[in-house]
Amino acid sequence: MDILTFLVDGLLIGFVYGIAAMGLTLIWGVMNVINLSHGPIIALGMFGIYFAATSLGVNPYVGVILVSFAGLLLGMLIYAIAIHRVINAPHLSTLLATFAVNMIIIGLGTTAFTTSAYNVDFSLGNISVGPVNTPTTRVIAALASVLVTGALYFFLYRTTLGKYVRAVTDNRAAAELMGIPSARILALSFGLGTMLAAIAGGLIATFFPFTILSGGAYELKSFVVGVMGGVGNPLGALIGGLILGTFEGVIPAFMPTSWVPVLEFILFVVILLVRPTGLLGAKK
Amino acid sequence: MSLKNLKNPGLWLTLVVVFILGVIPIINNKASAREETLTVLLSVILVSSLNILLGYTGYISFGHIVFYGMGGYVGLFLISVYGWSLWTAMAAGGLASGLLAFLLGSAILRLRGSYFALATIGINEAMRAFISNFEPFGGPTGISLNFQVYNQYGGAAQALWTIYYVVLALALGNILLSYLVKTSKFGLGLQAIREDEEAAEVMGVVTPSSKTWAYVLSAVLPGMVGVLFFFKNGNIEPGPAFRLHLSIELLVMVMLGGYGTIAGPVLGAFGYQRLRGLLLTSDLFKNIQLTVAGVLLLVIILFIPSGAVGWIRHRFPVTRRYLP
Amino acid sequence: MILQVSGVSKRFGGLQALSDVSFNLEEGRIMGLIGPNGAGKTTLFNCINGVYRPEEGRVVFRGQNITGNKTYHVAKMGLSRTHQIVRPLNDLTIRENVIVGACFGRENHSLGSAEKIADEVLEFVRLHERANQLAGSLNVGQKKRLEMARALAARPYLLLLDEVLAGLNASEITQMIGIVRDIRERGTTIIMIEHVMQAVMNVSDDILVLDFGKQIAFGTPEQVANDPKVIEAYLGDPTLAAELSGKKSSA
């Protein structure tokens, strides 16, 4: 394969990284909670479309839609049970509460699915443009990601509920004074974050095999992308995703693939140190 | 630190309990009990060292295990390549981890709250990925010791006992160290940082160096026991040496017992490892032990966020003097 | 001259918080720092003790240029302060709070000698009966005295007091004024930001008036109260203007 194909493959998956990171930074931006159960929820999204395809026999893309609603509900449930009580407690409490959820999901998931690999048996062939040849599913995933980003912007900036979410992000106390039911808005925001994670998982599962532990890697990538794009900045997350995807696509042309994570995480720490608001600026 | 502080009954109670539990396998001369207790003692060391940074200073690290892995690698490298003795290698491992903490701390301790926590995750992952590529440390396959290396310690069986004695001594030493730090002027400065970093600075606490030294102090013992553990194992690989999950288990143990206290981390380590042992051997819970641990953690965070010892201290203020 | 501030300016984005503030303060005096809300009083404190680095100007403390020095260096040189919004170390006891002040302040005490100083200072601010209580359990008035005790335990040459009277009731104000006078008696120079005009006019030797970040007057309480610029600045705030002119007639 030549470098152009690497580049396009990286760029396309970068869109999906963007969606995953958007879910993480949406929650972070709205309620200042870093969701350490992000990875397992991505993994649940993967299993969601697998079972939608095998048990219900639906098209994987219909599966993604089903999974997104399940992700929304699951997130609201997680918020109600695990987060709401400690939403104003020190960081350690919310970090560990979401990590407890992580352990619970991974434990149950391992029992139900073991840690062996699953694969959604699905292919739409390849698309060739000039010298570039790439699986159609990747192109669709990228397009779907753009669609989801657009929908999120529409929700945040064109609907009343979205306006409430932004108000709670800016100043929760003031929003409450104006009669906005902040607890419900926080639950909804957490649900939206997990919904995006589940969609990202579902889209990835259309072209990569996966295990219950696969989400962890994407959670870490979401951190990298999230701080790159700036906390609570959805468009920043998408652009950050594209940068990371391209980076991952191009680097193997210059050095062994195993160096990619080294560079990724060094970049992550360096961004935190020099520009904690993100290269593209935080939304707040 | 003044000597009158050493009269605290809570400190001695903690030391005596750990000593008795540590001596039981020696008296019974049972290898299986020794292995079980060794796991607990290693946790005690890792947790009470983490407590210096987390409990006293208020900085949440998700990468404490980096120092354990770093020490292990440096130690095994020196033993296998240069033929160092276990004891000098152990000292070198502690030193290497302390140095790493000094360098990292100078950079990342500027970050506050969640940002610091995230940076420690990044460092853990960067470290693991880097060591996987670092040929002198064996890259992805790591370092394995030749079986002959145990001969100079009286054979493998005897070496395991020797290591156990040293770990027990280090665990007791670490409890004493964490107590001395807490009751020292330096420790008071750390606690001021935990409560309000700006206010501490205005009162004259030199925060950058205090935080860095707290980080170094919390890193040295994990580096030393890292050498012992991986020497006992006979090999070290990037995955087990830098397991993010282990760092988080340590946080769970601190939370379980109560952070910022001396007895808390010890109680947390004992409690968590016992529970884990029970769950792993029970037919009913073997498969979902992670879920049970997760539910337990969630219940602690939601309902008793200050941990067992912290809860007692809050509920019965009289005990504050006796439960350091 | 214990403190020389010359041409200090500080900007936050588009807001000019301080412009060209200059004054000299002699040892052993009490200086009142007054001005309407948002005049830049706390910002001036923050520029003096190193929380902010001013864009322009110099701060010289006991002959040494401390402009932009770290707060902990400034504290160790003998400049302590209290906060307008109290910042107790909640999970430490009151005595421990004060010990922090003594241990890390100018005299750099060991824990043992710091304990003695803490007990002495706590008695001075009348908190000694609560010494072993957690700081988080105090009420606002007590927390203000704790702030003061921590700052005093450092044995500073210069003490910056940020609204120590705000939120106190009448008897607490009298008590606090007594404490401030006693501190000066012991040889510590004081700058105090205050809104309780009667009190600050009575207790201060010098008054500096800020308005929109500009220094509009500096002098004795009488000079300042008669300054037309000051009266104009306070005209927007009738009660303060009344208090000022009330002081003028009684002076």
| Structural class computed from helices and strand pairing of chain B | mainly alpha
CATH superfamily name of the largest domain in chain C? Answer: P-loop containing nucleotide triphosphate hydrolases
Low-pLDDT residue intervals, each spanning 5 or more residues of chain B: none
How far apart the termini of chain B lie comes to: 14 Å
Largest sheet of chain B: 2 strands, antiparallel
Distance between the first and last residues' Cα of chain C? 28 Å
Low-confidence stretches of chain C: none
State the order of secondary-structure elements of chain C, H for helix, E for strand: EEEHEEHEHHHEHEHEEHHH
- Could you name the CATH topology of the largest domain in chain C? Rossmann fold
Furnish the topology, listing elements before pairings:
The complex is a heterotrimer of chains A (284), B (324) and C (251).
Chain A: H1 3-31, H2 38-54, H3 60-83, H4 91-113, E1 126-129, E2 132-135, H5 136-158, H6 160-170, H7 172-177, H8 182-205, H9 215-229, H10 234-250, H11 260-274
Antiparallel strand pairs in A: 1-2
Chain B: H1 9-28, H2 31-57, H3 65-82, H4 86-108, H5 113-133, E1 143-144, H6 155-182, H7 185-195, H8 197-202, H9 207-233, E2 235-236, H10 238-241, H11 244-257, H12 263-281, H13 289-303, H14 307-315
Antiparallel strand pairs in B: 1-2
Helix pairs in contact in B: 1-2, 1-6, 2-6, 2-9, 2-11, 2-12, 3-4, 3-9, 4-9, 6-9, 7-9, 11-12, 11-14, 12-14
Chain C: E1 3-12, E2 15-25, E3 30-34, H1 41-48, E4 56-61, E5 64-65, H2 71-76, E6 79-81, H3 94-104, H4 111-124, H5 140-153, E7 158-162, H6 170-185, E8 189-193, H7 197-203, E9 206-211, E10 214-219, H8 221-226, H9 228-235, H10 238-250
